[in-house]
Amino acid sequence: MVESLYNVENENPAIWVFLEHHDGVLEGVSLELLSRGRQLADVIGWELTGLLIGHQVASLAEEAIALGADRVILAEHPLLEHFTVNGYVHVAQQALLEYQPSIFLSGATPDGRDLAGRLAVRMRTGLNADCTDLRLDPKTGILICEVSGFGGGVLALIEMETHRPQMATVRPGVFVPGEADSGRAGSLVSLEFDLPPEIIQTRVVERVSGESLDLTQLPILVCGGRGIHGHFEWMYELANLLGGDVGATRPPVDEGHIERQRQIGSTGAICRPKVAICFGISGAFHFIVGIQEADMVIAINNDPKAEIFDHADYCIVGDTHEIVPALIQEIRDWKMEVGD
Amino acid sequence: MSTLHIVVCIKVVPKPEEIAVDQETMLLIRDGVRSEINPPDMNAIEMALKLKDQYGGRISILSMGPLFFADYLRAPLAMGADHIYLMSDRQFGGADTLATTYTLAAGIRKLGNVDLIFCGEESSDGATGQVPAGLAEWLGINQLTQMDEVVIDPKKKLARGRREIKGGHLTLETPFPVVISAKTACNEPRFMDYTIKPWAFEEGRITIWRREDLEVEDDHIGLSGSPTRVSGLKQAPGRSRQRKFLKGNPAEIANQLGKILQATS
Ligand SMILES: Cc1cc2nc3c(=O)[nH]c(=O)nc-3n(C[C@H](O)[C@H](O)[C@H](O)COP(=O)(O)OP(=O)(O)OC[C@H]3O[C@@H](n4cnc5c(N)ncnc54)[C@H](O)[C@@H]3O)c2cc1C
Ligand SMILES: Nc1ncnc2c1ncn2[C@@H]1O[C@H](COP(=O)(O)O)[C@@H](O)[C@H]1O
Fold first, then answer.
1. Is there an atom of ligand 2 within 6 Å of B182 CB?
2. In CATH, which superfamily holds the domain spanning A6-199?
3. Strand B5-9 with B58-64, pairing
4. What is the pLDDT of residues B222-233, one digit of tens each?
5. Does A3 have pLDDT greater than 80?
6. Least CB-CB distance to B262: which of A219, A267, A334?
7. Considering its fold, how many domains does chain B have in total?
8. Is residue B21 part of a domain?
9. Would you tell me which residues 211-240 of chain B have a C-beta closer than 8 angstroms to some C-beta of chain A?
10. So what's the pLDDT on residue B209?
11. Interface ipTM above 0.85
């Protein structure tokens, strides 16, 4: 078999987390991985290390230490100001070869996937992508990754015996970030590396970012399907009244009634709200995947045989045109009573 | 200027809604399950076809998998692609990402003189989305992943792509050759052209490559080239729900719903 550049015999007992950051802020999934990484490291008595690559980002190291890292390895260079897969993989490989950690984790974000996908091949090792859970066998130090396939219908556990590092990317939102403790001790180490400018072949022409929309953790998710016939203003009104936000199935997104970021399901967001309310949604497999983790599901559909009712706690057979205005009125009345 | 040569990597997958796990053997039940081209790959095909519409050139479809894939691979030809290459051999089976990308890279090297390689964002059976980056690494070329839009300058041999990111977008530019993955649902794949459908189904449109047709090391392909191992498989737990039907006129229903929502807030 193809051999990895180092293997289980010369690995070091450490879990590494790639610290992704944009605009001077650590990505949410990096915080989540620090929290999970800390738990795994404690179970087996290993070290948790953050790999921080960028330009003038040292201040983020303190944050990573406060969130659980024992050590942060810092690689700074003006050419690393923006993430480019060429530059970051080049530097990350040098760090891995120097320290040879057993495990390397990154978020399953676009940049995290780019980095990990390429780095794994460069290290000649395996990669478990888009994991939904991570465990560590305390006896063997083998990482057990849970991944979901077939649009979320099937779960597989994957592990790797001899190749190192054990690499995984983890889906944002599956772990909960920990509390920062500014009193925690940790060390900061600067990496020595070379970075010939011609390595970076990708030019960042433009990068515009803004407030992000995160529908994954909401108290109330109000979802509209084709059966609300484009009346998303109702969905927004309800969501505002209830302190939640709005999601949609794919057809209204495709038809341009609402932006794609709000699509819920296997090719959209996977959400875990306290309550998901589904208006005019048939309950297709691809959609259900996105609300399976809701504590409670309420469905309104005028077809008593609609599949959605099999996936709902409260089922209402009715026309959205009648139920939605009545519900809006009801909640307004109740808000008035409590003087809200 | 030589003509543009585009490769699109596509995969055939079982329809996800039909797949289940046998609770005793812990194997996937594939009997009677229909297959389809991995839906995100249709977006990759469309992205490639748009460039062919604009600049001419030819499109090769490349796939690795069992021989039955051939039945499903004709559609891209009827949409405007030129030829299909199916890499099929028992020895390729059981490949994880490392072995898959290695083998696909060998196929692309055999094709030679490729400018652009398109992939889907991810495959619905594995959904790892790691093939594009791994493929680019084996080939030692650039990558533009999860692109919503791609434009090229065939004279300067530059590709420029745009990816949506949180609250905005990112535009990247890189020289040919480059692996590009298309963001799922970024475009509307065209229908088959019925006037070229008969041509698409003629013999000779598909070339099958076996192990011996490719320059690969035996210990790098298939199961023996795959460092990762599946140790367990299970059906994702479907949540059981209460399925209580609320009755009444709209006002009465709204009242009951209001109470339920109040109780949770
Ligand atoms: C690869 C792939 C990925 C996909 N990914 C996703 C995804 O991530 N998310 C997603 O949502 N879909 C996805 N889809 C599409 C999915 O399969 C369904 O087509 C989609 O979820 C259906 O949306 P819908 O329920 O809004 O529409 P429909 O299926 O058309 O259902 C509309 C429902 O509204 C009801 N209705 C109509 N009028 C009224 C009314 N006046 N009052 C009350 N009820 C009414 C009807 O009875 C019907 O049940 C994907 C498909 C594919 C092939
Ligand atoms: N066996 C294969 N043959 C051809 N292309 C593939 C194969 N596996 C993956 N791909 C391509 O790589 C993309 C991402 O797949 P994956 O990394 O498996 O999620 C797919 O959308 C395809 O374009």
1. no
2. HUPs (3.40.50.620)
3. parallel
4. 999 999 988 888
5. yes
6. A334
7. 1
8. yes
9. 217, 219-220, 224-236, 238-239
10. 98
11. yes
| CATH of A215-338 among 3.40.50.1220, 3.90.600.10, 3.40.50.150, 3.20.20.150 | 3.40.50.1220
User: Does ligand 2 lie within 6 Å of residue B134's CB atom?
Assistant: no
Q: Judge contact between B104 and B225, C-beta under 8 A.
A: no
CATH number, domain containing residue B206: 3.40.50.620
Amino acid letter, residue A12: N
Q: Which residues of chain B have pLDDT under 70?
A: 1, 25-26, 127
Looking at the CA of residue A226, tell me the nearest atom of ligand 1: 26
Q: Which two tokens stand for residue A291?
A: 């609300």
CA dist., res. B224 & res. B93, Å (int): 9
Instruction: List every span in chain A annotated with CATH 3.40.50.620.
Output: 6-199
Q: Nearest ligand to the C-alpha of residue B121?
A: 2
Express each pLDDT in A50-90 by its tens digit: 999 999 999 999 999 999 999 999 999 999 999 999 999 99
In DSSP notation, chain B reads: -PPPEEEEE--EEE-GGG-EE-TTT--EE-TT--EEE-HHHHHHHHHHHHHHHHH--EEEEEEES-GGGGGGTTHHHHHT--EEEEE--GGGTT--HHHHHHHHHHHHHHH---SEEEEES--TTT----HHHHHHHHHT-EEEEEESEEEEETTTTEEEEEEEETTEEEEEEEESSEEEEEPTTSS-PPPP-TTTHHHHTSTTSEEEE-GGGS---GGGSTGGG--EEEEEEEE--PPP---EEP-S-HHHHHHHHHHHHHHH-
The span from the CA of A68 to the CA of A57, in Å, is 18
Q: Who contacts A189 (Cβ-Cβ below 8 Å, separation ≥6)?
A: A71, A72, A73, A74
Q: In A, which residues are within 8 Å of B174 by CB distance?
A: 201-203
Residue B28's φ and ψ, nearest 5 degrees, are: -70, 135
- Considering only alpha carbons, which residue of chain A is nearest residue B250? A323
| B147: containing domain | 5-225
* Domain contains B123: yes
3-state helix, strand, coil in chain A (%, to 5): 35, 30, 35
How many whole angstroms from A254 Cα to the centroid of ligand 1?
Answer: 11
* Residue A64, min C-alpha distance to chain B (Å): 22
Question: What residues does CATH 3.40.50.1220 cover in chain A?
Answer: 215-338
pLDDT digit string (tens) for B122-175? 988 776 789 999 999 999 999 999 999 999 999 999 999 999 887 789 999 999
CB A160 within 8 Å of CB A166: yes
Smallest CA–CA distance, residue A190 to chain B, in Å, is: 27
B140 contact A CB<8A: no
Secondary element (H or E) of residue A181: none
CA A254 to chain centre: 24
